[in-house]
Every structure is written in structure tokens, then in C-alpha cells.
Amino acid sequence: MTVTPDHITVPREQTAGLPQLVGLTREGMREALIEIGTPEKQAKMRVGQIWQWVYQKGVTDFSEMTNLAKGFRETLAENFTLERPEIVTKQVSEDGTRKYLLRIAGGHEVEAVYIPESNRGTLCVSSQVGCTLNCTFCHTGTQKLVRNLTAGEIVSQILIVRDDLGEWGNVINEKRMLSNVVLMGMGEPLYNFENVRDAMKIVMDNEGISLSRRRITLSTSGVVPEIARAGEEIGCLLAISFHATTDAVRDKLVPINKKWNIEALLDSLRAYPRLSNSERITFEYVMLKGVNDSDEDARRLVKLISGIPAKINLIPFNPWPGSPYERSDWNRIEAFGDIVNAAGYASPIRRPRGEDIMAACGQLKSETERARKSRKQIEADAGI
Ligand code: SAH
Ligand code: SF4
Question: Is 111 a catalytic residue?
């Protein structure tokens, strides 16, 4: 595939140092406004007005908030910033997938990937710089955790992509280019719970980004103690990086399994709030040649998850430089899917997107935090 590079650099405004308004909860912003002298009685209404400007119209300059008094706009500008993280590079794949490398405070870099489809579009957002976990098939897992993203940095990924798509103003839900959000970029979202929750509340709020909770999917490797809380406090759809059908194999592929094993994970899923046929759990299953892709694995999988409303997303492994696994053959993936399907579960095979720009699942990794682990170390972790 040919790559269509489209590198752009956005000049940074000099507002560094001022606190960011994007990402504050309604209550947090109300308090911040009161602190700069907004009368308490007005503060709640001002929050709603500001949210509409920021999250529905995409405004980055307080002076454009024309339904606020001029003096108030000036006070806001003296005390806060609406500055976005900087786009370091943007790459566009042949299939239309867009990968953005963003620079956040401290000079760290994270990626966000926009995947257009015929009548909708999904943004894959990052929740951490790097990851504390080291799943052996995941590129991000070769990178140490640098830090959690703030709620503002998580929401800003959506704002930046809407800037780039030119999608501001009155968009009807069904017509949105950015219609779905998946927390499947860099990082483990349930290890950054509060920031992810606050960010998603803004995404779901009718005066915020205004996407329904059913258009948001949080993917976790299996942080069992936080799963019920995600259902209660966020209420979005859930995806589980399952990837193996025995503890011995899952311990290698998804090492968090040593802490919370398959049984503990499945118990927590059976208890997930609002679990129903219309709100099924997605089991992500990366297809690794000769590791987890046998007919026996498929049969074990359907047995394990019996009773859980679920769909199985089969993900052909996306290789990265130095990766210790190979993608299962296509007919193997289909045979696996047939067994799962015959047991009554939808088992779509995920079509890799943006392969020519390394934008596919598990390939994300920032340039600045490049390979901390050697190839030898990666192979040792994978047990080969
Ligand atoms: N940390 C979270 C979310 C980010 S990973 C989690 O693990 O769920 C998003 C998805 O990409 C997960 O299902 C992950 O297992 C999968 N993934 C990671 N590396 C991959 C690779 N090289 N090829 C295919 N899928 C991969
Ligand atoms: Fe972290 Fe998810 Fe990658 Fe595992 S698959 S290393 S949890 S980002």
C-alpha cells in the first residue's frame, strides 16, 4: 500500500500556563467560574453556555462567545485557556483512516485514530501515554507508562479530530462523521478511571459532545475491580481483551491475568450492569498463529462465556517491528469464527484499517517514547 503522508504542524499560541477549561466537570467548571468572580447564582447557567461554545461549536477563542458579556469574556481569557494539544503529524491511509500524533503537556506524545465508515465514523482515543501492562502482542505494551492523560487531554482528541473534519455546529446524530468513540488507543482506561469517566461524561452530555452512551465502547484488558464501577459511573458499552481460553496462555498474552484470572474476569462480566442482548459485551480475540487459534480454543471459548450476552470480535493480529507473533491464516480465522457462530454468537472478523500507516489496533506507539525493550526482552516475555 502506498502511504499518503500529510504532515501538518499547527503553531502554538502563547497561552501556556493558564488552566485548561476543557475537561472540567460541570461542577468543576462552576467552582472555577465562581473563583474568578462569577456570581454563584449565574455560574450554572454560564457553564452550560460555555459548554455549548466549546463542545458544540468548537470555539477556541473566548472572544467568539457572543452571548457572554464582553467583560466576562475578557476575564475568562485572562484566567483560562482553550488551547488544543498540538498536532505533530497527521497521516491519511489509502482507506481514509487518519492517524494523528498529538503532543501534550510535558512534550509527551499520544495517538488518536479516526476510522471512517460509509454512514458513520469511529474515533479510537488514547487514555495513557504508554501502558503499565505488557501484553506481549501489543506495541504499546513495549512502552513503559509515562503518565495518565487528563480528562481534558482525552476530550481534546475528539475536539481536534472534529476540527480536522470540519464537523462543528448543528449535526444530527445519524449524520455525524465522528459518531462513535472507542477507548482502544494507547493505555488501559480502567487504570485512569476518574479522568476517563469525567471525559466520557462530557462526551455523553447533551450540552457537551452529545453522543449516546451506546456509542462509546471502553476496552479493558481485565481490571476486574473497576469493571462494575465502569458500568455504574460511565454506563458505556464494554469490550474485553480476552485473547485466550486457558489461564496458562492468557497469563502470557495478557499478564494482568495472573492477578485476575479468567474465572474472576467472567464473574465480573456476569455482574456488569445493564447487560442484555441489546447491550452485549464484546470479546476481543486477537488471532495468533499456533498460539490461541485452534478449533479446541474456539470450543472452549463458547463454553467459558456461556450465559453472557456477547459478541466475539476476531482481530487478525497486526504485526509491528520486532513483534514475536504471526497472524493466523485467513481460513483458520474463518474456521474459528464458524465454531463460535454455530454456538449462537456473532463473530465478525475485524477488517484491519490503516495498515499502511501503522494505525491498526495495538500498533500505536509514540516516536519519542520509542522501544524501551529490546527484541530479546520482548521474546523472553512472550516465552519463545
Ligand atoms: N488497554 C486496553 C485498550 C487498548 S488495546 C485493552 O487492552 O483492552 C485495544 C485492543 O487492541 C485490545 O483488544 C488489544 O488487545 C488489541 N491489540 C493490541 N495489540 C494488537 C495487535 N498487535 N494486533 C491486533 N490487536 C491488538
Ligand atoms: Fe496495555 Fe491494552 Fe496494550 Fe495490554 S493490549 S499492553 S492493556 S494497551
Answer: yes
